[in-house]
User: Fold Rrf2 family transcriptional regulator from Rhizobium jaguaris.
Amino acid sequence: MRHDTRLSRMLHVLIHMDRHEGAATSETIAAMLGTNAVVVRRTMAGLRDQGYVRSEKGHGGGWVLARPLRKITLLDIHKALGAPQLFSIGLAGDNPNCVIEQAVNASLAEAMSEGEAILLAKFAKVTLAALAEQSSERWAQASNCAAAMEDF
Assistant:
């Protein structure tokens, strides 16, 4: 089964956009993601509609952030992407009159609902600025490792 990676990919794009000077074209973003520019435009339009990015027309135009990363959370982007389903587990519906299926479905639905609430609460606490900071720290560590290997 294929996973929905839109949230991860858009978080990645938005942090790159923050570090990129000037606007990022749909074509540039598409090349980075290995997808089609039309897919990027459609996805970015949803983020634009929610006020997270804006498009600039003309020469040097493209997509730019409309808010600082510290004012955008994982939950914001999750919602802007249409709140994709968080879990791939589904409930059975083959025998809706079966009391065993009903009990199993009720238990699974309750657990998934509780898990989703916890996950979404965590998403609300994590800003894109925090992710950008973590990536900078990882970059510094990787650079230190590379420098140490050169000396080896």
Observations:
- Helices lie at 6-19, 26-33, 37-49, 74-80, 99-125, 128-151.
